[in-house]
Design a protein that fits this description.
Distance between the termini: 26 Å
Keywords: Deoxyribonucleotide synthesis, Iron, Membrane, Metal-binding, Oxidoreductase, Transmembrane, Transmembrane helix
Binding site for Fe cation 2: 174, 208, 211
CATH architecture: Orthogonal Bundle
Oligomer: single chain
Catalytic activity: a 2'-deoxyribonucleoside 5'-diphosphate + [thioredoxin]-disulfide + H2O = a ribonucleoside 5'-diphosphate + [thioredoxin]-dithiol
Strand content: under 5%
Radius of gyration: 19 Å
Family: Belongs to the ribonucleoside diphosphate reductase small chain family.
Order of helices and strands: HHHHHHHHHHHHH
Number of helices: 13
Cofactor: Fe cation
């Protein structure tokens, strides 16, 4: 029996663990448990009040985006991932991840409560700002496909939809779009601003790095166990999803930083986005597309994305090479 399946009676016994990577990630996630109010954000209020309008706009824009999208990830996990897996260890990890997404959402609520931000305006942004709404619609489309159309996980088409959903959420939303936002949020600390907010983001990044590892491992496991998915056409589609996501993020970042702030502008962020996209493509077995350097090398102190590549070295599944082999 593979990791995919919809049986209620399967996955009721934890041992022997079949997918040790999932169990290891669960143990690490539990060890990482934290709560937003452990950080005193009030100390950052003075910073926020003395920042420029453009800087405050960037913080508000980020919180406006992250707040609903953390909850959107939970919907993707509950409706698009959890029901289609057999392994108890995978279910344990997903349960902890869902709690973490809730915790992240409460963290951004904490920011909204602490800083003088118009909550109604912030809440409305994910609908009112076209570039933000476009990213959300891209994500929602994949859940809708799994909810409103019957997904038969036993068919090649059903398994493809399962993979598409994982790529949309674990790779694009959490592994590229979220990381881009984290970099902007942490850039304030580089200038000795919003240091406690930066610590909160550090904790969120630590969680998200595990979410990314889980999603990547799950994708590679499903591909390894289901050779029918390893076609050049499907590989090309998955790669194109990631390239389209980069273009959407570029538009979003132009709205996030229309004029640029000290040491940071949209071009800088978009180079980081392309750097992230290359890392994700390589982790999936593709070659790099953009071949850009990391402009935010200081982010390595918070979370070096290159470390993620090493995590998958033990898995022999290379998406592109398998696809070519099957053609």
């Amino acid at each position: 029996m593979g990791i995919l399946g919809t049986g209620i009676e399967e996955g009721l016994l934890l041992k022997p663990v079949k997918y040790q990577w999932a169990m290891d990630l669960y143990d690490q996630a539990v060890a990482n448990t934290w709560f937003p109010n452990e950080i005193q954000l009030g100390e950052d209020l003075a910073d926020f009040k003395k920042m420029t309008d453009e800087e405050r706009h960037a913080v508000t824009f980020l919180v406006s985006y992250f707040n609903p999208n953390e909850l959107l990830v939970n919907k993707a996990l509950a409706f698009g991932v959890y029901p289609y897996l057999n392994a108890a260890e995978a279910h344990l990890y997903l349960a902890k991840q869902m709690w973490e997404e809730a915790n992240h959402s409460m963290s951004f609520e904490y920011v909204l409560e602490t800083f003088p931000i118009d909550r109604e305006q912030a809440y409305a942004s994910h609908v009112d700002v076209p570039s933000m709404a476009r990213k959300e619609e891209f994500e929602v489309r994949y859940i809708r496909r799994m909810l409103e159309q019957k997904l038969d996980i036993t068919t090649t088409e059903g398994k493809q939809d399962f993979i598409r959903n994982l790529v949309a959420y674990n790779i694009i939303l959490e592994g590229i779009w979220f990381y881009s936002g984290f970099m902007v949020a942490l850039s304030f600390r580089q200038r000795n601003l919003l240091r406690n907010f930066g610590s909160l983001i550090d904790w969120i990044v630590r969680d998200e790095s595990l979410h990314l590892k889980f999603g990547m491992n799950l994708i590679l496991t499903v591909l390894e166990e289901n050779p029918d998915l390893q076609t050049p056409e499907f590989a090309a589609e998955i790669k194109q999803m990631i390239l389209d996501a980069v273009e959407m993020e570029e538009q979003y970042n132009n709205d996030l930083l229309p004029g640029g702030i000290l040491g940071l502008n949209a071009n800088y962020i978009n180079q980081y986005v392309k750097y992230l996209a290359d890392r994700r493509l390589e982790e999936l077995g593709f070659g790099a597309e953009y071949n850009v350097t990391n402009p935010a090398k200081w982010m390595a102190a918070a979370n070096d994305t290159l470390e993620l590549v090493n995590f998958f070295e033990s898995i022999n599944t290379s998406y592109e090479s398998n696809a070519k082999a099957s053609s």
